[in-house]
Amino acid sequence: MMKKCVAALLCALLLVSAAAAEPLTFAAPETIVTERGLDRLRRYAGWTQDDAGVWSVCSYETSAALNQLSQEQSGAGTGYFCLQIEGDENLGLVQPVLVFYYVGNRAVNAETVCMVIGNTRYDFRVSCERVELGGVTAQVMRAPLNARGLAAVRTLMTAPTVRVKYLGQYAYSYTPKLQDSYQNTSAQIEGSSLKGYMAMLDELDAMGFGDYALWDLNARRWEALYGFEPEMEASSVTEAAECAIALNANYGMLGREDNSAGVRQLQELLIAQGFMQGRADGSYGDGTVRAVKAVRRYYGLMENGVADKSVIDCLNGESVAREEDVSTLDTAPRSDLGGVCEAGLARCWYAPAVSTAAGEDVRTRVNADDVLLIAEGVIENTSPEELVFYRQLNGVLTRDGARYACTVLVETDGGRRFDTSMLPGAEARLIVYAEVPRRLVGGGTWELTLSAGAGTLSYALGE
After folding, report:
1. Domain assignment of residue 39, yes or no
2. Distance between CA atoms of 386 and 382, rounded to whole angstroms?
3. How far apart are CA 442 and CA 227, in angstroms?
4. Is residue 277 part of a domain?
5. Which pLDDT does position 357 carry in this prediction?
6. pLDDT for the residue 323
7. Are 189 and 164 in contact (CB under 8 A)?
């Protein structure tokens, strides 16, 4: 009789747990892990994929423009930009990237690319390298996009023209325009920048990218590869006209190679505030670039050599608000698990593998017919003893009565490796994953249960 009562009580507790399951959002499109998920993109001539599963694709308009650019011999310079989609099939990540090209005699070596669309200037931090493009050597600048950056690119869809400026060792500007005909090949190549990106935006939409929420993992991966995270600043060109110092009217800023009374005023202000020494000569050269970078670093702005209203406001003692990305994990609600730990999951996704932030520790599926269903959150060891997961913390994934054992890990050692234990008081990124058949991706609901001591957390993973 006692056994029956206990069994009934356990069933009741399980029912309560199921009813109280917290919803957990899928943070990446399932299309990239389905059997035909990337087939739409493979039809483009610009599709590439390496043995590690890293892929990229550009539109057929971009392929045609780059083919033409590879034959361009303009000493004055030719610019072109496009939207490229990159991804890591193993980790389930998708990264939109603005790619800028320059063919000409000057070694621009850009660190920043400015784009003016309407009355707004967008500044993107870029990597820069030299690439053999057919018969010419091109300088290629790559700006990884975060959510705000992708939203800015979408404004191009209604723009008949845009002003573009590469800023590095030298400055180079061009103004792509949508026209029926062009006076020369260089203008045609530049104008085609406003066509090719549309197809890639359409492909992102077809992929179901609107709810993508792994931007922070994208940023970690990009930083590991290139040394910086995706970064963009937006400012109003019209508001720049109200600045105390006269700025370039087309870009609402001062930068490399500008020569004006406004540059002299800026230098005087930099000298007065201790960011620069010497004399104000009105020429925006290396010394001014270094001083402006120091100002931006000190005040928490994007660290480039562009002087705009925000920089001048900071020098004049006015506060400037910087828009920060808030990680999903930072806001994940945590609950007590039997007095052993506090934990909370914030999102989930499918992928063949999961890695630490630095990408040095990778856990993969065992069977190529399967994928990992990964849930991510935070955990804190609130007990006075070391928390050992395989003894004290258990995870189970269920669907339609079938049970899948979960692996529970924490990220440690500065994001370099995973571990299965935590010291008292430690807090870390929590990863819970189970290997499931690929054919079950989509069209159903999973339940993930974490238990420790007498505590249980239950999550409904809807699709």
Report:
1. no
2. 10
3. 36
4. yes
5. 87
6. 64
7. no
Among 339, 458, 461, 393, which residue's Cα sits nearest to residue 15?
458
Domain count, the chain: 3
pLDDT for the residue numbered 324:
62
70 plus 176 within the same structural domain = yes
SS3 227: coil
Domain boundary among 168, 202, 234: 234
- Our measurement of the distance from residue 256's CA atom to the centroid of its chain's CA atoms, rounded to an integer in Å, reads 27
Structure tokens at 352: 């063949």
Q: Give the Cα separation of 215 and 432 in Å (integer).
A: 19
Are residues 251 and 156 both part of a single domain? no
CA angle 457–386–398, rounded 5-degree value? 25
Domain boundary among 286, 315, 344: 315
Give the separation between CA 95 and CA 148, rounded to whole angstroms. 13
Same domain, 282 and 214: no
Does residue 268 share a domain with residue 213?
Answer: no
E strand or H helix at 447, and its extent?
Answer: strand 446-452
pTM of the predicted structure, to 2 decimals? 0.89
CATH of the domain at 277: 1.10.101.10
64 and 189 assigned to the same domain: yes
- Do 59 and 154 lie in a common domain? yes
What is the Cα–Cα distance from 166 to 148, expressed in whole angstroms?
20
**Residue range 98-123, pLDDT digits in tens:** 999 999 988 899 999 999 998 999 99
Residues 176-214 have pLDDT tens digits of 998 888 888 999 999 999 988 899 999 999 999 988 999
The confidence score (pLDDT) of residue 113 equals 96
Q: Are residues 250 and 170 in the same domain?
A: no
Residue 45 lies in a domain: no
33 domain-assigned: no
Q: Measured between alpha carbons, how far is residue 358 from residues 214, 279, 294, 411 in Å?
A: 15, 45, 28, 10
CB 266 within 8 A of CB 307: yes
* Contact between 113 and 143 (Cβ < 8 Å): yes
User: How many residues are recorded in the chain?
Assistant: 463
Coil, helix or strand for 106?
A: coil
Under 8 Å between Cβ of 98 and 72: no
Domain range for residue 295? 241-315
Give me the CATH number covering residue 388: 2.60.40.10
Residues 93 and 203 in one domain: yes
pLDDT at 7: 42
CA–CA dist 193, 83 (Å, integer)? 9
CA distance 63 to 52: 24
Give how far the C-alpha of residue 268 lies from the chain's centroid of Cα atoms, to the nearest Å: 37
Name the stretches of the chain with pLDDT < 70. Answer: 1-20, 74, 320-331, 463
pLDDT value, residue 3: 44
Token pair in block for residue 210: 């609107």
